[in-house]
Amino acid sequence: MSRIAILGYHKVGPPAPGSWETWFSVPEDVFASQLTALRDGGWQPVDSAAFLDGLADPAALPERAALITFDDGYRSV
Known about the structure:
alpha/beta, three-stranded parallel sheet, two-stranded parallel sheet
């Protein structure tokens, strides 16, 4: 049975000048440690096409699949 982790990010790095810290901004060191934890835990990254194929055929996914998404296309990404 495959497992799928979906991680969604808005912005990596500090919040914009004049704004406040929220869950929208993930510090770079936290982001790096999350990626390291995925790698060390045996998670394999998949792209959106592989993820969608895996919905129809779960056996096509690795045992531990990780889909990492970003929205807004900030320069920090």
